Amino acid sequence: MQDVLKQQYDFIRSTRQTLFAFLEGIPLQKLHNTVPNFGNSSIIRTHIHVADCYLGWLGKFALKLTDCSFATDYDIENSDVKKVRDRFELVDEVVQQFLLEFNSRWFENLANQVKWQEEPWITTPLWLLTHTETHEFHHKGQIVSMARQLGYTPPDTDLVEPEIKI
Fold it and tell me: What is the DSSP letter of 111?
């Protein structure tokens, strides 16, 4: 199953690269503009939030890594697409570690503290991976919608043509 989940994540990374290439063509100031109706957020802030979700759930919660810090307001305000790419390189490393660590243990209960309740929260590695990946696609849709509102036409970031091996 690990190979399937790794391949699935590789598809997700491929769509992410398409989004990064598109965002590199938008002026940095526009990437930091607050876009109405999107939680008073910007494209950069939203994209960093996605990375932080992976780092928080897979890195801190599941793997109990202490070096997965969330981006500060300063980090966000001083980010560009390259810095967001760099943050996602860290995400890629954490996801690979997560896939190795929980290989064949996808339904094992994991417990750890969350900020919204006193008692530890319990879930499974498969739920955490599914949540972070679907969370990314939810916000990717918001990011391309924000770009449209700013006057840019995004490429198709939903479908990745798989390599067909004959």
Answer: E
